[in-house]
Amino acid sequence: MKKIFRFAVFSMTWMIVFYALGGCSRVQQQISMSEPEENTPASQRLSTMAVNPMVWPLSGTAAPSTYETVPNDVFGPRLSSSIYDFHQGLDFVAPEGTPVFAVADGTVVRLETEAQTAGTSLSRYGNWVLIKHDSLYQGQTYYTAYLHLKSYAVVFGQHVNAGTAIGQVGKTGANINLFHLHLHAYANLSQSADKTKTFVSGSKIRNPYRLLPLNQQNLAQASYSVNNGMIEWTVILPVSEADLGHVEMNGTLSSRIIDFDTLQGLNANNVDQSLVNSVEMVPEAYTQYAPEYRLHFKVPVSVLGSPVSLLVLDTRGTVIAQLDATVPPQTLNGLPIQQQSLCSWINNHAATWIQQFPVASETYMVPDMAMFNAVKNAVAQWNTDHNDAALASALNPLSFGVYYLQDINGELWLMVEDQGIRGWGAMALNKNALTSTLYEAPHCMSDYKSEEIAARAATAHKAAAVIFSGSDRDANAQASLTQPSFKISDMAHNTGTIFEAFHEGLQAPLNLQIHGFSKQNYSGFANAVISDGDGTQQPNVTMTDIANRLATYGYSSGFYQYGNMYEPLGARNNVQGQFTRSLGLQFVHIELDTPLRNQDINRLNVAQAIY
Prior knowledge:
The chain is α+β, with helices and mostly antiparallel strands. The chain is built from twelve helices and 35 strands. The protein is about 20% helix and about 30% strand. It is elongated.
């Protein structure tokens, strides 16, 4: 039966907020509902039925009749006259007058004739009966509806048992031309104030196979193919038991869940739309005479990342198919593609850098001026022509690799030392940038998790670029030639670093540099200290806006001005700030107290608060 309802009441929920901000953890995005069951992963749900006993609606017993062995239409995606359609129930074709039975004990809470439904939103229902079942199923009250009846044999308020005859198969209802029973299932419907009428709702639709005594042979099959950057999963079920409940695709970048069992994951406004959260559902033509029910799921590899796996569950929460897929390495313009979030990437590399360039390791290598200028000029040229292939060509002789990093918030060009042997760090340029802002993390190891906050903020806000230091600020004992009070490996206080070459090459109009401190060492300081590196002027609009947004999360801020208490963290000796101000551009230096950096939720909040 063609779908009757359009869904208008769904609430969109991010399962892991990190993803919305370019987060490190695998993200599960799905449309969720407010009922208890929907807060439990399908793989962990109870597989036992509380509605008992159960019978088939046309046999009246625990064994299906010949009419029910293969449904005329299953619950879920289908092609209807070659058009994508989501079928919201089960259709069983049977001769006119075939008895229809209640599938479980319950009470008749609504019944209407074809004359009563004509001209209403339920005009396709024809003669129909709604039963509220006595027992709970997984903590929810269930209802079943029996549509297109020739006639019904029950009255309002009547209690029926499983197997009680309630009517006869017909073809009543608008544009219904085939004798059949359409079986609906609902959960937790609402009633009128006087409890004389129960309201059916498309958002409460459930798969009727939940309430039927299936054979549960679990004969699903799954396969995949990769073409033109798309991975296509194919799920195959026998038509005699096409109880597809839940499909989950998990990759290094994200997850996508389509939960047909509860209509989770379907488009919030129109369930007939086949593209859901970057996943396209493509059903093959289905008839009850076909041996299989086939459904394809197409999703860009760049959304999931690689490797990726598929998990398929039936309506009882039983895993019926599981498949791992390895996607062949992909390239774009001849450059390799890495599929993971920038946050995940920098956390992994920062851990490696900590091992390679720890305090007093003497492993950091000072670049000569030729290397410094080559990097600076290559980045400046890219800033003019955005020719990433030319950028790769210019940096490869310096042992810099240039890769595409496909993050949920954009495609990035990532520049990093291939072997990581000199401690020069990395830079990411956002191909989908919406702002020209540059984020910087010059003390990745010493200022704990400052690099993660920079990565989160840069990708969430689609900033132009973000740069990271590649060694500890005290990796080498040798002092900087230009600022002897700092080490040569200190990126924020040494002009001769590749970090500074990236900075000078970009010449971004707004530069936000992330640092860390501990209030234990600075009595009376705020949670965050914000500075323009000069301190002779009042805080600018960017600084005050950041402070105001931090305040919404309960974090206090203090502004450095020349001679005030925050002078130790004022960044007057910061070389990036000095260069930026010399060009008349804007530099903002942000110091974050330890708790704002060492707790996940605080890092998330800070990243959201910073431009």
